[in-house]
Specification:
The protein has helices at about 15-25, 40-45, 50-65, 115-125, 140-150, 165-175, 190-200, 215-225, 245-255, 295, 310-320, 330-340, 345-365, 385-395, 425-435, and strands at about 1-5, 10, 65-70, 75, 100, 160, 180-185, 200-210, 210-215, 225-230, 260-265, 285-290, 305-310, 380, 400, 400, 415. The chain is of the alpha/beta class. Helix 1 (about 15-25) crosses helix 3 (about 50-65), helix 2 crosses helix 3 and helix 8 (about 215-225) packs parallel to helix 9 (about 245-255).
Amino acid sequence: MNFVVGEYTFSGQGAAEIAASIERAIGQGALAPGAALPPQRELAAELGVNPNTVAAAYRRLRERGVIETGGRRGSRVRPRPVTTARDAIRLEVPAGVRDVSAGNPDVALLPPLGEALAEAAARHARHPMLYGQPPIDDELGRLARAAFDADGVPDGPVGLTSGALDAIERALVAHLRPGDVVAVEDPGWGSLFDLVPGLGLRTRPVGVDDEGPLPHEVDAALRHGARALVVTGRGQNPTGAAVSAARAAELRAVLRDHPHVLVIDDDHAYGLTGLPLHPLAGSTEHWMLVRSTAKAYGPDLRLGVLTGDPVTVDRIRGRYRLGPGWVSHLLQHTVAHLWRTETLDLAAVSSSYAARREGLVRALAERGITAHGRSGMNVWVPVPDETGVVTRLLQAGWAVAPGARFRLGSAPGIRVTVSPLAVHEVPGLADAIAAAVRPHGAERFG
């Protein structure tokens, strides 16, 4: 039998068939993000199957990150289901509107790649990478390990992936099983919120302030069974939080009571800020710290350099060998050249972002608006009504990112990326935000 919702017909007699039918509807756009699914008993009656069969289908979809269940609200398509293309749910920016929503770096601050790429090509001509050769370039490995040592990261082998999120995914898969809980910052990285349920795992939000995750909420999450914790050391997206030395000490004290928890340090803002790194690496038996080249050197330079305990790194390397095999040595040689020649002027980059970020936070404070942005390229502004504020700012000529992309249970807000701004534009943007939002003096983001 079939069951019609809108213009789409659900079908199937087994859990796998029913789940596939629903997933096709989402992929085709017949079920939009947030759309309600039929009650399980109603769908079972129409399809002529046992309610347990539909329950099993819904459970499969929930574990794969396609739908979510909210008690009496029933089951709904997730706001960003894994089957929905990310571009399909982006904020549309009308012509003539300044876009400060995208989260991209300032292209004027990215280093030139011509010399580095030319050297990489010359090395390839002399010694091409072939099957069976070591996956990590010796020079890049040495430079990465030296940088980790300089930042106080515990000793460990070096690994490579195609970016920070790739490394985080592989670390979670290396230690967790479907149904396990991952403690994540809230507000936090929207892509991580999508990834965790996409792996069949569950998120447990922990609150964040300017100095990082709140220790008592991390402790509660771990005591309630979270098997992994993901922490952004600096340049946290979207709030700009940076883990201070004092906060790191508090978090390490919490982790001493949970030695078997996987701890992941995300240092994607490496190269963007002069604030020191205070890693949690080594606080537990299994850990990983990853830093990305994408923000400081360009989003298309997809390389994540990681270190961790030997078991975790060995598992990540092993799984990488079974799939991609290795990260392109042309890419590795390019990054090694950039690091060796110190092409990126860290002080200048950090100062440029800080001038815009701190300038906006200060200008908003002068207008009675609380905002946060301790590091990185984003400013987080708590607001009472995201939709209203985003709409009014669009009408005023500014596109900001709705906070819903970055929240699980925390209070509403908007994210402003300062990268496209010139310093002289900051007062005008602050005026527009002040006109769109009431003063809101929250001291934490949730």
